Amino acid sequence: MIFILVGHFYLTQLLLPLLTNGRIVNVSSLAHRFVQSTDLDYSFSKLKDKYIPMKAYAISKLAQIYHASELTRRYGIKAYSLHPGTVTNTSIHKDKSFIKRILLLLLSVIGKTVEQGAMTSLYCALSDDAKPGQYHSDCQVRTPSELALDTRRAEECWNESEKLINEKMK
């Protein structure tokens, strides 16, 4: 089951002619580490299975890492992927069930403010020290999962994204 971020991918494709000196910054997540190679199914044959939001989220974040590395490899574009950190004080956490409140309280101890969470995005967008094609966290290059480092899988994700767009554009 792969939920490719086709919208982001397609927008970037449309902007490629204008990206002579720009940067692409993809916000990924540490959650990409939860993806197993068996989760990547471009035939969508597992869509009949139960939809698992966290799994879909993790796969989409892995796709963000693939996208940045492939943009750099294929086009030499300065593209970056990053984990902003656990930002807990946003309105995204609207579900106020008891369990979620406890979880959010625990995460607030190790979490970041919105401002702190934005720092790595700004670092990748503005700093000459950021490394194109690499995964960043806390304003440093970090090693993503083994699966995220698989260049064959990154190329496959790119090719399948192109194929899906081309089919829909017919």
Q: Could you please describe the fold and organization of this structure?
A:
The structure is a single chain. This protein has 170 residues and is α/β, with parallel strands linked by helices. It has a single domain (6-169), classed as Rossmann fold. The chain is 46% helix and 10% strand. The chain has helices at 6-15, 53-75, 98-110, 114-126, 151-169, and strands at 23-27, 78-83, 135-137, 140-142. A four-stranded mixed sheet has the order 1-2-3-4, sandwiched between helices. Strand 3 and strand 4 form a beta hairpin. The model has no long low-confidence stretch (mean pLDDT 85).
Provide keyphrases for this structure.
alpha/beta; Rossmann fold; 4 strands; globular
CATH topology call:
Rossmann fold
Low-confidence stretches: none
Task: Give the assembly state of these chains.
Answer: single chain
Please estimate the helix content.
40-55%
Distance between the termini: 24 Å
Envelope shape: globular
CATH class descriptor: Alpha Beta
Beta-strand residue fraction: 5-15%
Sheet of most strands: 4 strands, mixed
The DSSP helix count reads 5
Can you tell me the number of structural domains?
1
CATH homologous superfamily assignment: NAD(P)-binding Rossmann-like Domain
- The helix/strand order is HEHEHHEEH
Give the class from helix and strand content and strand pairing: alpha/beta
Kindly state the number of beta strands.
Answer: 4
Compute the CA-based radius of gyration: 17 Å
- The second-level CATH architecture is 3-Layer(aba) Sandwich
Strand order of the largest sheet: 1-2-3-4
